[in-house]
Amino acid sequence: MAVTNNHNLTIALRIPSRLELLGVLDKVVEGVADQMEFEDMDRDAIAIAVVEAGTNAIQHGHYTDPQKPVDITFDLGADQLIITIRDEGTGFNPDIVADTTPPPDLLSTRGRGIFIMRAMMDDVSFDFSDGTLVRMVKNRTPVEKDTGGGTA
Amino acid sequence: MKINRDDKELVTLLRMEGKIMGGPDAEAFQKTIKDLIAEGRKKVILDMSKVSWVNSTGLGILISGHTTMQNNGGTMRLVGVNKRIDQIFMVTKLHTIFDSYEDEAEALAGF
User: Fold this and answer.
1) DSSP count for chain A of H helices, then E strands
2) C-alpha distances in angstroms, A149 versus A26, A144, A146, A152?
């Protein structure tokens, strides 16, 4: 049964900086995406982006120090899902994030995280004023409803 | 991530299980690949059917394995890649370097 009104619903989560807990985060994303009735491909895209942002926070923001928490929020709107992921890291310059798809860099073993997040979400922005905050937006594609009527 | 090695005549099947996401996964996988090369086993099929997801660090692990094999005259083929992982391969264009097959029989054919 679908929940018809998700307006102003916020879900907050805090996890220690341990890579294996990305699996927990992934399950929460799955539940949130199901709640909002995202299509399968979009649900996967959201999960991929959140896992990437979580990986960055744990590995680069906190150097996998389990004492440092990563805070995640999900804001479930009528037509869009807004996700924030905050760590205590000093940040980075998002403008110099590489595109590793051209052949010379295709076999690079690093540097794809931000590129993947941007490819999977409708909007990705960063705020480094208090640690590192990643804000990601996924718009929900309206599902065409079968009215069952047809033309007269 | 778990790796279960299964040697079949000239081809080695590595059955992967779990999530490929860095940390100790990288070392374990790289050691497995180097062991295979040292033993002269240079035809490898990576069974991904029990891998639920891969992050960008995990992609680096797979690329490293592919490159190490290739640099030593070997070949690594993938089977059982799910839709979610395939979506990452497409976006990153890694589908152009990984030889991916539907199933083990298809990957074994002509190997």
Assistant:
1) 4, 5
2) 39, 14, 8, 8
Cβ separation of A106 and B94 shorter than 8 Å? yes
CB contact under 8 A, A47 and B84: yes
Calpha distance B26→A55 (Å, rounded)? 15
Say what the pTM is: 0.89
CB contacts, 8 Å: B88 with chain A: 48, 116
Cα nearest neighbour of A26 on chain B: B53
CA distance B27 to chain A (A): 14
The CATH number linked to B55 is 3.30.750.24
- Which residue type sits at B103? D
pLDDT of residue A150: 46
Q: How much is the pLDDT for B24?
A: 86
Quote the tokens at residue A62. 């906190």
Sign of torsion over alpha carbons A98, A103, A107, A112: positive
Residue A101 is assigned to a structural domain of this protein: yes
Q: Is the pLDDT of residue A12 over 90?
A: yes
Where residue A85 sits, what CATH number does that domain have?
Answer: 3.30.565.10
- Is A70 buried (19+), middle (13-18) or exposed (0-12) by CB count in 10 A? buried
pLDDT at A143 over 50: yes
The domain in which residue A36 lies consists of 9-139
Nearest one of B56, B43, B55, B57 to B107, comparing CA atoms: B43
d(CA B40, CA B45): 15
Among A16-20, A66-70, B20-24, the least confident range = B20-24
